[in-house]
Design a protein that fits this description.
mainly alpha; disordered C terminus
Length: 303
């Protein structure tokens, strides 16, 4: 921590501006980094940290992703109640054996992780070849997961509804259900990070609060819901909501860049959010600093 150099762009510019002012060159006397024009008091920092995530939450990309991941996260926690209902209450298995089908969800998560790894390797090859990567390049696996999610939810719900169907069938559905959950999570979190860049922490913070609140509420109503609607009806309700949300990654794939261009917090190559002037100022100041250093070097050489 004490030996690694600073890499945060705003602080790097701030340190450059301080060095330029320390040269006592008239043209560099008024050089300021963008961060110096912001409120860096403790109250100001807390104000930004506590308010910005909620402002970004209602940005179109952040809001739709928060809704989607909240539904997925809720289902993730509901599974810990649904599986005992399906395999213990309805099939009469004991507590130890009734939890074993959850191993299928672990296998599914591993399969989803392999797909994510393959996508990441392909993206690295594209980047190494000079291909310009857009945030929307993260979405193909979300499209796969978005389509797989409702399909596997209906599959699980209606095969678990009837005890006459072999236990391996809903267990297999759980394998692909957990794969879809992982694909959706990884793709959307990466998409948020690439879309909001320097504001990614705030976007992820708001998203985390929303989905965690929904996930925390899941155990409170899951058992009542499935006892009232049945496994088929309760699962179909979740699958129906998932079907309504499935088009979101396809919408982002086609219109994501236009949405980001209209956002206050999602920088694109066509919008600099007012930072162009400061960047030009620092660049010009850097040129003056180089010239000043050249003059000083010539004086030392002549001496």
């Amino acid at each position: 921590m004490f030996t690694i150099p600073e890499t945060l762009p705003s602080i790097v510019l701030y340190n450059k501006a301080r060095r330029l002012r320390a040269l006592n060159v008239p043209s560099c006397a008024n050089v300021r980094a963008p961060i110096e024009d912001t409120d860096r008091t403790l109250i100001g920092i807390f104000k930004v940290a506590l308010l910005r995530p909620w402002i970004i939450l209602f940005d179109p990309i952040s809001f739709l992703v928060a809704v989607y991941l909240s539904v997925v996260y809720t289902l993730l926690y509901m599974l810990f109640t649904i599986y005992p209902i399906v395999f213990q209450q309805r099939r009469g298995w004991n507590a130890g054996v009734g939890e074993l089908p959850l191993i299928g969800t672990v296998i599914g998560a591993c399969l989803g992780g392999l797909l994510v790894f393959a996508q990441s390797a392909r993206d690295r090859k594209k980047a190494a070849a000079g291909h310009e990567m857009e945030p929307e390049q993260r979405l193909p696996i979300a499209m796969v997961g978005g389509l797989l999610f409702p399909i596997t939810m209906f599959w699980f719900a209606w095969t678990a509804e009837y005890n006459s169907i072999h236990w391996a069938v809903p267990t297999l559905a759980g394998v692909f259900l957990s794969s879809s959950i992982l694909l959706i999570f990884v793709a959307y979190l990466n998409y948020l990070t690439d879309s909001y860049l320097m504001f990614a922490a705030s976007a992820l913070a708001a998203n985390t609060v929303c989905r965690s609140a929904c996930g925390a509420s899941a155990p409170l109503f899951t058992e009542y819901m499935f006892n009232a609607l049945g496994v088929g009806g309760g699962g179909s309700l979740i699958g129906g909501v998932a079907s309504l949300l499935a088009p979101i990654p396809f919408v982002f794939w086609k219109y994501g860049k236009n949405i980001r261009m209209r956002s206050r917090f999602a920088p694109t190559e066509d919008t600099d959010h007012g930072n162009g002037r400061e960047k030009e100022t620092v660049t010009e100041a850097d040129r003056e600093m180089d010239e000043q250093r050249g003059i000083e070097d010539d004086k030392q050489w002549n001496m």
